[in-house]
Write a structure and sequence with these properties.
By secondary structure, the chain is an alpha+beta fold. It is 52% helix and 18% strand. It is built from 8 helices and 8 strands. It has helices at 2-5, 8-53, 58-83, 88-105, 107-122, 162-166, 193-206, 241-259; strands at residues 130-133, 136-143, 147-151, 157-161, 171-172, 178-187, 217-223, 228-237. The protein has a 5-stranded antiparallel sheet. A 3-stranded antiparallel sheet has the order 6-8-7, with helices on one face. Strand 2 (136-143) and strand 3 form a beta hairpin. The chain is elongated, with a radius of gyration of 38 Å.
Length: 282
């Protein structure tokens, strides 16, 4: 028989060769694993520094660094398994199936993540801007990969998913540094419209917070039931918006009182008919 033809010394030599081959294979896999982890970390760090020099947002830079590191580590693990003799095709197929399942289960989160990356790259707003996003008005307090933090006017903090922010129109009131406001003031029908407009224009020109360009506008918007309604439009710096509107309204009221321009409120006309009431029927 074949086994009888192999002497004990030859069998020992074959076992030694197998053990030597196995040891070299395992050693090569360990070296490849250590070297792969080290090289992956170095390449990921180089990418992060390059993004920093390109003035890419730190949050996005960290995310891309970690994503690159994870992809490189996955390649290293596949190479190590190939070195050990494990077939890579079934492993890649299993990883692809698992990735698809995870992607479907985290569809909403991935949508927020993708929108967060786009918001950080294109920067439609920054921290401190006054915006309307996702149907919420407020001041931006923070932007991360999943959510945008907006402080509302009542002091509450709104955490808006980035998918909702990126999927709707964004109004940025701070980007240009100035904002238009509108005021409506009613005057009596007996008042001279030209005089009232001149008084308002004088008050606007006297307030340094109201910008000269774009031009200030005052006109008759409509003839109401009780008053002639004037509409006032002007631009001011975004930071001065509320204070300027309050000051101008106060100044208009005081100036109109001073020069005798009436600002009538709602009125009702009641007609009284005198006579004998008809007798009530039984």
């Amino acid at each position: 028989m074949l086994l009888n033809l192999i002497t004990p010394s030859e069998l020992h030599r074959l076992d030694s060769v197998d053990y030597m081959h196995l040891g070299m294979t395992v050693l090569g896999a360990v070296v490849l694993l250590v070297l792969g982890f080290w090289l992956s970390a170095r390449l990921a760090n180089v990418l992060e520094r390059a993004l920093g020099r390109a003035h890419v947002d730190a949050t996005l830079g960290g995310f891309l660094r970690n994503l690159t590191y994870g992809v490189l580590i996955a390649f290293v693990l596949v190479m190590v398994l190939q070195q050990l003799g494990v077939p890579s095709a079934p492993l890649v197929a299993a990883l692809g199936t698992a990735g698809l399942a995870v992607g479907l289960s985290l569809q909403g989160s991935l949508s927020n993540l993708a929108s967060g990356v786009l918001l950080i790259i294109f920067r439609p707003f920054k921290i401190g801007d006054s915006i309307t996003a996702g149907g919420i008005d407020g001041t931006v307090q923070g932007i991360n990969l999943m959510h945008t933090l907006v402080q509302k006017g009542d002091g509450t903090m709104a955490v808006i998913p980035n998918a909702k922010v990126g999927g709707d129109a964004i109004l940025n009131y701070s980007q240009l540094g100035q904002q238009r406001f509108e005021l409506n003031v009613g005057i009596g029908y007996e008042v001279s419209i030209d005089q009232a407009i001149a008084e308002v224009r004088g008050l606007m020109e006297a307030d340094e917070r109201i910008l000269k360009t774009p031009a200030q506008v005052v006109w008759v918007s409509n003839l109401g039931d009780n008053a002639v309604n004037l509409q006032i439009r002007a631009f001011t710096k975004t930071a001065d918006l509320s204070a300027t509107q309050y000051a101008l309204l106060k100044a208009i009221k005081e100036r109109f009182d001073e020069v005798g321009i009436s600002m009538p409120g709602p009125q009702r006309q009641i007609t009284i008919v005198q006579g004998v009431l008809p007798e009530a029927k039984p």
